[in-house]
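Section 3.1: Structural characterization of target chains.
Under the original work plan, the team committed to producing a structural model for every single-chain target entering the pipeline before any wet-lab resources were allocated. The record below documents one such target. The sequence was received from the expression subgroup and is listed exactly as submitted; it comprises 412 residues.
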Amino acid sequence: MTHQSRRMPALLLAAACLSALVLAACQRKGIEELVSTELYSLSMGKLEDQIDLFQFEDAMSTRMNSIFMRDGWFYVANGSSSKIMVFSSYGDLIYLLYNPQTNPVPTLLGPVDQNAADTVTTRGSVAYPFTDIGRIAVASDRTLYVEDAVADAMAVKDNDQGILRSRVILRFDRKGKVLPALGEEGIGGAPFPFIFALHVTASDQLVVVCRLPTRWQVFWYSRDGAPLYRVDIGNANLPVKPKAGQTPVLIDIVPDLQSPLLYLIIDSYTDVAGPASGSSAPADAVVAGAYKLDLRTQSYSANPIVFPQNPEHRTRDGLKTVRIPAPPSDFLGVSTSGYFYLLAATDNNLYTLQILDRNGRLAAQRRVVIEDSELAFRDLHLDSNGILYGLMADRTRARIALWRSDLMLKGK
């Protein structure tokens, strides 16, 4: 997720003061702040331990850049440089996968000896001709999954859906050895359409979530790349009973990390409010929830997990008081222990992090400060243990930070 903003210094000072006052008020109400820990930062540039986010005249690169954390290692995919850097929790560059046509020869890391007997530690660099790096994910044995583009001659035009199936999942072992790539049917399969997300379950099964213009497709594979489940969900057949004045929208699909289940994150927008509609909700209010799909039975659970509705804002429009519905929370993901994590914007640079149990009950919440007004780029994720982490950048540097949100459930 990216966020860009430019403000005058006076406005920044006023916003900071307002944020401090709001945060103090929130803390007085008993909601504590979850403080972030900045682990280290990366300078901008083309060198092997630098990140390249901007193009000419400080314009953001159109290529994808993202981060993935696994067992204390941070995998940073820099699409504009066609490379993937792996850092320790102390900021040491320990592994590099790079396209030699778009990167200088590494000086900090020599080539990985892929024939060495050591299977525990990998340190070095591996060259690979990446085309267009997208999403990444990492298994417990450090198998690296990288979304990339296929050669133009291998792309498949889908006239029925009006799309081009042109994506593939590359696989690399812990030493950078190339493993057979994955397509829709598994190893050597046809290209995927647009890939929305990659997930790795607790048993190292890979889940590929694809988004099409009018439907979603989910592909679930074993740790060896064999297809296990395939789901096709259209916008017209969502598990929400239509109601007058409401429009359901499928926002995301995430897998359960322990069982073959999918959670469909659906926002239901109230189009009409007032006595005529029989609803007390303000116009354009949103009711969000997770609908569970059991892949073994191909059936939905009877009751969704309803997410807390964020309080509306009120403002004056002449002599009238206008109610402005707050946007729904961003769904961060599900932890291995089955808790749902939500992040709601509450004010300038201020958020509320909420954790729900499997029944939708609020288990914990904290205030989180993210200086969006100072950022040009932001990519936030939730790891399988429930730790919030992210890659954030201004015009001069990128930093890796985390929030120990897993400790919010300590003692529960």
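The first strand starts at residue 37 and ends at 43.
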